[in-house]
Amino acid sequence: MKVIICGAGQVGWQIARHLSGEKNDVTVVDVNADLVRRATETLDVQGVVGFASHPDVLAKAGARDADMIIAATHSDEVNMVCCQIAAAAFNVTRRIARIRAQEYLDTAYSDVYNLDRLAIDVVISPEREVAEAALQRLAAPATFDTEIFMGGRAQLLGIQLSEDCPVLNTPLRQLNELFPTLRAIVTGVRREDRLFAPDPGDQLLPDDQIYVFTHSEDVGRCLEIFGKKTRKQERVVIIGGGNVGLGVARALETRTDRTRAKIIEKNRQIAERAADALERTIVLYGDGMDMDLLLEASVDRADAVLAVTDDDKTNLLVAVRAKQAGCRLSIALVNDPTLAPLMAPLDIDAYINPRATTVSSILRHIRHGRVRNVYSIGDAEAELIEAQVMSTSPLSGRLVRDIDFPEGVLVGAVMKGERVLKPTGDLRIEAGDVVALFAMAKDVPEVERLLQVSIDFF
Asked: pLDDT (tens digit, 0 to 9) for every residue of the chain, 458 residues total?
């Protein structure tokens, strides 16, 4: 497949990394020559320097025979024009645009994005994706990462193991014997900064970060088994009243459990906009780094603080201060993935990486065919792929134990109709079933071959 990626920033680079690693023909376009050089020197991609919205630049990038264009520059307007030019001048059949300004995303104007007007097949909104990720973190406060699968019937949980975890030093195969009715599988383990798919004989150690795929009904029990307590979030303090913070507050206001939220925003115009848009949420104007203001917002009695400003360092420091003041849970928005190792030493409970969230959203649409959901884990180190099994797939009609999965691939669950089942060796996978597969990045191409999604792409 030939793909043009407009924008060589972090999101564009990560998408190029995924697609080029799967032997696709990828060309990266950016006006910044240094970013293009970085992409071509570190990845198996071609590069073109120039304005991505200019027809001659797209032609130079190979738009005449491209299958897909992904517009992920920093400008919404450039992304829109890229898709329009790609459709009108080059007949590119698949067009994805990243659009950040919420004014463009108002439902009243949703019909603007169609073939007769702006020729965009898929609109990706990073702020909305990140706000949803923040809400998921709040819903599972004992986890550092979480994502919903199988129509809400299953969930991926990222859990940091502590010294008091009751199942430390227990081989994973024994967990199945100890908890036979628990519909959960440990699909990934990060130990000493290395992520891997564990074997049945592997044991869990203190400070391990594990990824558990579980039935949604078993989330509470699963957390208890791994030494975590669940707690309802009734009071939330949000630092940053921009699109992400505003989106979270709006969602909290619609809940029936009446979660009480307060927002701290240091930009007066943004604070006033948030106050006008919200009904029950208290908006405080000031710097979230100010401890007096944090105490005025009752952060010491809050169940959670959510730091979602546009500055990583501010988010980290606010999260630390909130925990020191007595807040039970701290969640920070962190754009730089290299800062992730600091979370544990700083006693920050969870973080949200907007780039990884956006990449996951784009991958969900790239892996079209029968793939229903994709979640990028860590620094694009692995993926959790949810897909429907086709009759032509090598998985169809075979027992789980008879399938020759790569070493870095584990089955998280199998859904038959409305039932989510734990993947045992004698479970037979049939055409029409939905499977959730944890796959290390190097094994994703083999997973796609097993799922036979490539031939069903369009």
From this structure: 899 999 998 889 988 987 887 778 999 999 999 999 999 999 999 999 999 999 999 999 999 999 999 999 999 999 999 999 999 999 998 899 998 887 777 766 666 665 566 788 888 888 888 888 888 888 777 888 888 999 889 999 999 999 989 999 999 999 988 999 999 999 999 998 899 999 999 999 999 999 999 999 999 899 999 998 777 778 999 999 998 999 899 988 887 677 889 999 999 999 999 999 999 999 999 999 999 999 999 999 999 999 999 899 999 999 999 999 999 899 999 988 788 888 888 989 888 888 778 877 787 777 544 778 888 888 778 999 999 998 888 899 999 999 999 999 999 999 999 999 999 999 999 999 999 999 998 998 888 888 865 434 43
CA distance 380 to 276: 39
* H or E segment to which residue 332 belongs: strand 330-333
pTM of the predicted structure, to 2 decimals: 0.71
Count of alpha carbons within 13 angstroms of residue 410, beta-carbon side: 18
Tell me the C-alpha distance between 349 and 337, whole Å: 16
Q: How many CB atoms lie within 10 A of CB 388?
A: 17
Residue 4 to residue 454: CA distance in whole angstroms: 18
Residues in a beta bridge with 350? 331
Say if CB 380 and CB 18 are below 8 A apart: yes
Q: Which residues lie closer than 8 Å to 365 by C-beta, 6 or more apart?
A: 96, 121, 122, 124
